[in-house]
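Quick log. Single chain, no ligands specified.
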Amino acid sequence: MTEHLTKETFLNKVFDYEKNKEWKFEGSKPAIIDFYADWCAPCRQLSPIVEEIAREYKGKINVYKVDTEKEKLLAQKLGITGLPTLLFIPAKGNPQVTMGALPKEDLINAISEILL
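-> predicted structure:
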């Protein structure tokens, strides 16, 4: 099950960029964040795949979604310029970004290479 993040929940669960200049992950499990907008056709294609990933990896990784229309400041602060954008966040180390509606196989490969 994916969880929608606001700026406040992002600061608590992912990265408090107001306190920390350097990347410091606040979560305990690796995570994926799907930055999307309702008007974005590739985002709508990617959404069911992200939901499947959330179910299949439940308990292993956290899957979040950010509506860039509702959270414009958060998207700007993170430098999200194209949609959909996926942020892969390992428990340790720096996050990796991919853009575009990737096939499920590519997401699974990224999860095993970057997150698990």
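The first helix runs from residue 7 to 13.
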